[in-house]
# Entry
Amino acid sequence: MYSTMNSTANRVWVILIIATATTYWVGESGMTNNNGTRAVWAMFGLAFVKGFLIIYDYMELRHAPTKWKLGIISWLVFVISLILFAYWLGQRHN
# Structure
């Protein structure tokens, strides 16, 4: 009998759903209010994991040349870093 969890794409999809639900729950629970910096960092950590999984498995860069992997992962790190920097600046001025 074929199990649907034998496929890497299906396992990644389940991880993405769980990470999305977790991020939604943290955001809606109010944990990010009143100095919820750890919650925000956790949400961006999950965003990085989700981006990484999408890049590697859905964009199929797992078997791509190393320079492509480094370029795309560097872009992901850069974008998330910019957003975190903007968040930090906003928190500093409160």
Notes: The two ends are 58 Å apart (CA to CA). The mean pLDDT is 87.
